[in-house]
Amino acid sequence: MRLARKTGFACLIATAVACATSVTQLRFGVVNRPIVEGRLKSYKQSDSERETVMKTLFQSAGCSEGRLVEQPVKGSKLPNVICTLPGRTDSVIVVGANFDHAEAGDGVIDNWSGASMLPSLYQALNIEPRRHTFVFVAFAGQHQGFLGSRFYANELSPDQIQKIDAMVDINSLGLGPTEVWVSRSDEKLVRALNGMAVSLKVPLTGINIDWVDEYDEGAFVDRKVPTITVHSLNGRTPPLLLHLRKDNYSAVHFDEYYKSYRLLSAYLVLLDGLAAR
Residue 162 pLDDT > 50, yes or no? Predict the structure, then answer.
C-alpha cells in the first residue's frame, strides 16, 4: 500500500513537470513584502522568546482555534510549535524549520529565515480548501542534536508516517537565490520544484551542502518519507557566516528571500494538487 501510493504520487509529479505546469493554474495567496519582512525581523536573542514569537506569528496568520499546538519535546526545555491546515483528505505534507539558534550571532539566516516563513506559507495556502492536510512545524532543539524534529518524527505511528506524501525542510534562506540540497532530497520532489521555478522565472540552483550532514529532514529520511531541503548556502558559507556573529539581519538579501517565499508558496500548492489516493 505504501509503495504503491508513493509511486503514484511520484508519477503525478513527473507528469505535471513534463507538462510544464503554469503558475497561473495554481490558486494561492501571497503575503505582501512588508509583512514577510516584518516577520523575518521579529527574531529574538532568547530561544524561549522565539518560541513565543512563533506562536504570535502563526496566530497573526490566522492559525488558531485548535489548529495551533505546542508539542513538548523530550530532552528540550522548549516545545515544537505546530500549526495544522486541515485538508479534504488524510494525506499529509509536513513543512518544517527550526526556530532555535546557535549562541554566536543573531541566528537570522540559521534559521529564523526558515521558521518565520512558516506562518506566511500557511497564509498563502489558507485561501481555499486543500486536498492535503498541511502541518507546519517550527522545530525546537536543532542545535542540540535535532531534538525537535527527531521527537516529532519518532512519535508518529506507522500509519501516520504512511500518510505523509512529502516533508519540505526550510533552512538558511536569504543569503542569495534559492538552492536545493539535491543529494539529500527526493529526485522527483526536486524535479517538481525546478519545474515551478521555471514557471515563475526565478533562479533555482542545486547545491549540495554535505558538510552539514543533515538538517531536520534527517528523522523523516530515516522513516522513509520523501523529503526535500531548500536553502541558500554555498561552499564558502561555513567559515564566513553560520554560527558566527555575522549571522545577523545585514546578511539577508531580502529580494532573494521574498523570491524564495513566492517559489515555496507555489510549490506547496503544486504538491497539494498532485495528491491522489
Answer: yes
- Number of neighbours of residue 168 by Cβ within 10 angstroms: 25
Stated pTM of the model? 0.89
Non-local CB neighbours of 175 within 8 Å, separated by 6+ positions: 109, 232, 233, 234, 237, 241, 251, 252, 253, 256
The pLDDT, as a whole number, for residue 20 is: 39
CATH topology of domain 2-273: Aminopeptidase (3.40.630)
Q: In sequence order, what are the beta bridge partners of 229?
A: 169
In the chain, % helix, strand, coil (3-state, to 5) comes to: 45, 15, 40
- What's the residue count for the chain? 277
Quick: pLDDT tens for 202-252. 999 998 887 777 788 999 999 999 999 999 987 555 445 666 668 899 999
Report the C-alpha gap between 156 and 144 in whole angstroms: 21
Cα 23 to Cα 200, 205, 233, distances in angstroms = 7, 19, 26
Write down the domain spans for the chain.
Answer: 2-273
Query: Can you list the positions of beta strands (E) in 105-147?
Result: 133-139
Q: Strand runs (DSSP E) across the chain, as ranges?
A: 68-71, 80-85, 92-98, 133-139, 164-170, 178-180, 204-206, 227-231
> Omega before 111 cis (within 30°)?
yes
The phi, psi pair for 26, rounded to 5°, reads: -100, 140
Mean of all residue pLDDT scores within the chain: 87
Taking the C-alpha atoms of residue 35 and residue 83, their distance in angstroms, rounded to an integer, is 19
